[in-house]
Amino acid sequence: MKSKTEKILMVLRVFAWLAMIGYAINAGSQLICLGVSFSHPEAARKIPGIAQDLLNLLQKDFQNYALLLSAVILHSALSVYLWHTVIQLLSKLNLKAPFTFEVTTNLEKIAYWLFAIWVVGYTCGKYAEWISQSLGEPLNLSTTGGEFLFIAGIVYIISQIFRLGIEMQEENQQTI
After folding, report:
1. SS3 at position 66
2. Disulfide-capable partner of 165 in 15, 91, 99, 137 (CB 3.0 to 4.6 Å)?
3. Is-contact 76 23, C-beta < 8 A?
4. What pLDDT, on the 0 to 100 scale, is given for residue 144?
5. Is 47 helix (H, G, I), strand (E, B) or coil?
6. CA gyration radius for the chain?
7. Cβ distance 109 to 81 under 8 Å?
8. CA of 160: how far to CAs of 108, 149, 166, in Å?
9. Which residue in 89, 135, 133 sits closest to 113, CA to CA?
10. What does the alpha-carbon distance between residue 144 and residue 123 come to, in Å, rounded to a whole number?
11. Model pLDDT for residues 21-76, shown as the tens digit of each residue
12. Cα end-to-end span (Å), the chain
């Protein structure tokens, strides 16, 4: 019989898979949109899901459109890899012996990917603001806020606590 915590971890694993698949679909559709806009800019306007502001930018300044959409694609791709790492962590987590090197490494990777997502999102947001001011038209692009930086810090601290737990376990095993 599974414990309540094991059931929660299983549900979290399912949600992590759904998030990863959602971000993968999102990144794929953005990549297709970028590819179509290179060959047929007018056809890109008919692709569902692309923001109207980006379409207006496509019409006015293709180079900035391509750079901004590339940054958005990179943001989505980093999110896919983040969720892949979360799935790995949840799959390898053993509740009877949680302090393992693999868990610590995955927690550190998650912290680094969260930080990378924040950097790309922040840079993308500032670039979108600059483009908006240059063109004189609003460009409403949802970007990553400071919460990713905060969460990255928390996850990194937790990974260091796990690392300390591993060291304490090793010391305890050596003294016995």
Report:
1. helix
2. 99
3. yes
4. 65
5. coil
6. 21
7. no
8. 8, 17, 10
9. 89
10. 9
11. 999 998 888 888 778 777 776 666 665 555 566 666 777 777 888 888 888 889 88
12. 32
Contact 132, 138 (CB under 8 A): yes
Q: What is the pTM of this model?
A: 0.82
Cα gap 30→82, rounded to integer Å: 18
**44, 37 Cβ separation under 8 angstroms:** yes
Dmax (CA) for the chain in angstroms is 72
**pLDDT top residue among 40 and 86:** 86
Residue-wise pLDDT tens digits, 114-137: 999 999 988 888 888 888 888 777
Residue pair 30/51 in contact (Cβ under 8 Å)? The answer is no
Q: Give me the amino acid identity at 125.
A: G
The C-alpha atoms of residue 18 and residue 27 are separated, in whole angstroms, by 14
- Sequence-distant (≥ 6) Cβ neighbours of residue 14 within 8 angstroms: none
**Cβ neighbours, 10 Å, residue 157:** 12
Question: What pLDDT digit, counting tens, does each position of 146-176 carry?
Answer: 788 899 999 999 999 989 988 888 888 777 6
Mapping DSSP onto H, E and C, the string for 98-109 reads: CCCHHHHHHHHH
Contacts of residue 157, Cβ cutoff 8 Å, sequence gap at least 6: none
Six-digit token string for 38: 């290179």
What are 162's two structure tokens? 């796990």
